[in-house]
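Batch manifest, entry 17 of 40.
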Amino acid sequence: MTDCVLCAAPDAAPVTLAPGTDVAVLCPVCTAALAGDITPGPRWRCLGDAIWSEDAATQIAAWRLLKALPGEGWAAELLESVYLNPEVLARAEAGETALPGVEHRDSNGVLLAPGDTVTLIKDLPVKGSSMVAKRGTAVRGIRLVRDNPDQIEGRVNGQQIVILCQFTRKS
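Output type: structure tokens
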């Protein structure tokens, strides 16, 4: 019996990580999550250890799953603090799957991609906070909300927030 490299669950099997030739030994739950069937929750805290593995395939799988957890603040913070070899990061990004038909567009209809920089076109009050994200603020390194084409995530004044695409302009 082989254990999953991400969560240490038994009965894992080798899985090839598209589009390359990287192979990770994953359990059925982690394999399904990589295919897009992921539910946020405490189960994924194991990725905090897996992302620091010396094995490139394990790093790629953990990175992709962390990116697929849009509402988890701990996952976003972990992604910001982790360093992946640029070649490994490129392979991880190459296989990042978006949901079919989900496109994120700014207020001018320009297609947005992960990592883009956008500028706010309106003062936006941040829910649950007294902060107001001011018009003209540049939001660098955005993340796309996988299942909602109207929302992106980014850091404004050190706080991770969800932003509606209609209030942004690609820089």
